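Teaching note: in complex prediction, the entire set of molecules is handled at once rather than each chain in isolation. The prompt given to students was simply: 'Predict the structure of this complex.' The entities are:
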Amino acid sequence: MSAALILAGLGVPALGAAGIAAAHRRPNLREGVTLLTAAILFACVLALLPGVLAGERPQLTLFEVLPGLDLAFRIEPLGMLFALVASGLWIVNSLYSIGYMRGNDEAHQTRFYVCFALALFAAIGIAFAGNVFTLFVFYEILTLITYPLVTHHGSDKARKGGRVYLGILIGTSVMFLLPALIFTWHLAGTTDFRPGGILPADVSGAAVTGLLVLYMFGIGKAALMPFHRWLPSAMVAPTPVSALLHAVAVVKAGVFSVLKVVVFVFGPDALAGHTAWLAGVAGFTIVAASVVALGADNLKRRLAYSTISQLSYVVLAAAVLAPLSLVGAALHVAAHALGKITLFFAAGAIYTAAHKTEISQLDGIGRRMPWTMGAFAIGALSMIGLPPAAGFVSKWFMVSGAMAGEHWLALAVIAASTLLNAGYFLPIVWRAFFRPLSADAAAHPHGEAPLPAVIALTLTAAGTIALFFWPDVPLALARQMLGAS
Amino acid sequence: MNLAAHLPAHLPALQVVLPLLAAPLAVLLRSGNAAFVLVTAVAWAAFAVSLGLWQQTGAGAVISYAIGSWPAPWGIELRVDRLSAFVLVLVSGMAAIVLPYCRQSIEREIPKEQHYLFYAMFALCLTGLLGITITGDAFNVFVFLEVSSLSTYVLIALGRDRRALMAAYQYLIMGTIGATFIVIGVGLLYLSTGTLNLADIGARLPQVSGSRPVLAALAFLTVGICLKLALFPLHQWLPSAYTYAPSAVSAFLAATATKVSVYVLLRFYFSVFGESLLFDRLPLPEIMLLLSLAAMFIASALAIFQDDLKRIFAYSSVAQIGYITLGLSFGSESGLTATVVHLFNHGLTKGALFMLAGILVIVAGGTSLSRLSGIGKAMPLASFGIVLGGLSLIGVPGTVGFVSKWYLVLAALEQGQWWLVMAIVASSLLAVVYVWRFVEIAWFREPRADLPKDRRIPLSLQIPAGLLVAATVYFGLDTSFTVGSAAAAAEQLLGMNQ
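The expected output is the structure of the full assembly:
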C-alpha cells in the first residue's frame, strides 16, 4: 500500500503534466487538471502521514542503476514534512497562478503549468529519496525543469538571469555535489540515508571536513554565500514561480538536502568538531544577505535576499548540531515556507493590481489592498520571528538549541538578524498603511488583485498563524527525525 | 549437413563476410533502392550476429576461429572476447540504426545516380570496422583499417558542401600517415617476435620486451592509432570531416570510427604489450593523462567558439575522446571500465546528436548557428532531443554520460588524485556552456523568416534518431548491459597478462 502511494506521489504530478499538455487548447480544463493533480498529490502525501507518524518508514526500490546503487525511495519524517509543505502549498499556489497568469495575460501558459507540475515531481522525488544518488538525480531534474520557468518571458533579462541560475546551480552540483556523492560511495560503499550516518568510523577527520565542504557548497540550492546569486537572478520569473519554487520547493529542497546529509550521511555525532566553519559561513550569509535586503528597493529582490538569509538559519542550526536546533531547522523548513510564500503572493498581487515593483512606490497601498497588505504583515512577522506567526516557533527551538550547545556565535547572529529583519520588513508595512497615497498613485485607482490570488494569499497567511498555534504535526515529525537516530 | 546447427560456430566469419559480400553486390545491383534494402538487411544481420557473439562470450569465454581451419599462429585467427563482442555490438548496432536513416537523408544530399555507390561504401566501411574489431592478427588490423579508412574518405567526400572534398583530402593525408605508423609498428613487432598473431606476439614479447625495436613499435603504434582516434593534438582532421560529411555519415562515423580505434589501442596496450612494458619502461600513462586533459579542456573550449552546430559536436567529440583515453591512462579496473563504457555511451550520444543535426538541416538549410536561430520554436522535438543529448555530454544523471563520469571520477578517487576529480568535473562545465549556447540560440531568438512552411520530417529520419535519444536515457538508467559488459571487458583485459 505505502509503496503504491510513493509511486503515486511521483506518478501523479508526472501524469498531471501530460494531462496539462494535452488540454493546452482549453485553458479552463487545463487549470482544472492542475488543481486536480495538486489535490490528488496532496491527498497521496497526506495518506502516508499517519503511518510515518506511527513509526513506519515506507520504502520502494525502483531499479538498480549501477551495481549496488539503486533508484530507491524511503520516507522518513523530515522528507514527509518537506513533501507535505511542497504538495500542500502547490494547491494554493495553483489557485494563485490562475489569478496571476490570467491577470497579467502571460504567454506560454501551458508550458508554465507543465513545467510546474514536473518541478513538483522532482521535489517529491527529493523528499522521498532513499539515498544520496536518488536525491542527486531529482535535484538535477529540478534545476533543469525550473529553467524554462525562470526564463519564462524569453527576454534578454530572462536569458541573463537564466544563465546565472543554471550556471551556479549546475556548476555547484557538478563541481562539488557529484564528487561528494562519488566520494561517499567510495568511502562507505553505499549512499543510503541511515539514521546515525553511513561513514565508517575509520574515516579521517580531514576527509569528513572535506566531504562536508563539498556537500554544503555542492547543494547550491541552499544558497550559502558565495553561491547565492542564482536566487536574486531567478526573480525574473513570473511571481508564482518565485513564490512556490524560489521560496518553497527549490530552496527548501536545498536546505532539506543539507539536513538529510548532516543527519543521515554523516550523523550529528560524527560531525562534532567539524562544523565551526559552517556556522561561520552560514552566520555570515544570514547577516550579509540581511544587509543587502535592507538596501534593496525592488520588493522581489528584498524578498530574495531575505530568503537567502532565512535559508542559512537552517544551515546554521544544522551546524550547531544540538538536537533542539535540528528540530528547529526542520520546523523552519515549514515555517519559512508558509511565511515567504505569503510575502511573494503579496508582491505578485501588488504587481498584478497596481503594476508596482519598488518598495518606494507602495505609499498608502494598504488602504486599497487591505487583504494583501494584511497578509504581508503576517508574513513579515513570521520572518522576524514574532508571535503569533510560525517563524517564532522555529526560532524558539533554534535559540534553545544554540543555548543548550553554548553556541554564542549562533545566538549573536540570530539576534542581529532578527533586528535586521525587523528593519527591512516593518517599514514596508508602515509605509503601506500609514503613509498617504502619492499623487501619481491617486490618479490611477485600483483595488485588490484577482480573487483567486487574494484567496491564496489569505490562506497562506492564515496557515502561518495556524502553524503557531498548532505546530503539533511538524513538531512531531521533526522530533521523530532525531528520535530514530 | 544441418546448416542451423553449424551456424553458431561460424558467427565470427559471418560477422565480416556478410558486409564484405554486400559491398560488391550493391555495386552490381546498380540501383539505389535495391542497394539500400540489401545493405540494410545485411547490417541488421550483422547486428544479430554480434549479439550472438556477445551471448557466446558471456561467461568470459574467448572464441577463437581459425579461417580455413589453418590454426593460429600460422593461419589468420578471428578472436572474440568480452571487449571485442561489446564493440561489435556497438558498431553493427549503429549501422543497423543509421542505415534506415540514410535513405531519406542522402536523398537530399547526394545525387541519385551515386546512391548505390554510397551504400557499397557504407558496407565496406562497416566491413572494415567490424574486421578490425574481430581479427586476432596484427597485419589484418592494418588491412581492415585501410578498408574502413578508404571507404570513409569516399563517404566524407560525398558531402554536398564543396569543402567536404578538402575535409576528405585532409583526412586522407592524416589517415595515411597514421596507417603508415601502424604498419611500421606491426613490422617492428614481426621483426622482434617472428609472428603476426596478436596473442602469439603477446606471449613472445616478454622475452624481448626490453629491446629497442619493441619500444619503437610501441611508440609507432601509439602515434598511429592516436591519429586515427583523434587524440589531441592529432585531431585536426576530425572537425572538418564530421562537419562536411553527409549527415548520416557523420552520425555513423562519430559513433563508431574513433571508438574502434580506441579498441585497437586497448588491444595493443593490454593484450599485446601488457602492463609492465607500458607503465614501467615508457612514461605512457603520464603522456596519455596530459593529452587527455588537454583534449578535455582545449577541445571543449574550442567547441564553445564554433559557429556551426556540427562543428561544436565535432570538437566535443575530441573532448570526449579525452575522457576515454583518461580512463585508459589509469590502468586500473574502474579506469578501463570507464573507458569501455564511455566508448559505447559516447557513441550512442554522438550518433543521436549528429542524426538530429541532420534533421535540423532539412528545415533550416544548414547547421551554422545563424541559421538555427529560433529553431527550438520551429522544431521543438528535434531541438529537445539535442538538449537531451547535450545533457548526456554534460553528464547529467539519467543519461549515459553520467554513468561514464561516475566510473571516471571513481577511478580518479581510487588513485587519490583529487585534482583529477576536480579537472574531470570542471571540464564538464565547459560542456554546459556549449550546450547552452545552442539552447539560447534555439529558444531565445525569433525563428528566421525564410524557414519553409512545410516542416514535416520523414518518419524514417525521426524514428532512428528518436531511438538513439531514447537509448541515451535508457542506458543511463539501466546499465546492466553496458556497465556489465564494460566491467567484464576491463577485467579480462587486465587479467590477460598476469
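Point out the following to students. Residues 156-188 of chain A form the longest helix (33 residues). The CA atoms of residues 20 and 113 of chain A lie 7 Å apart.
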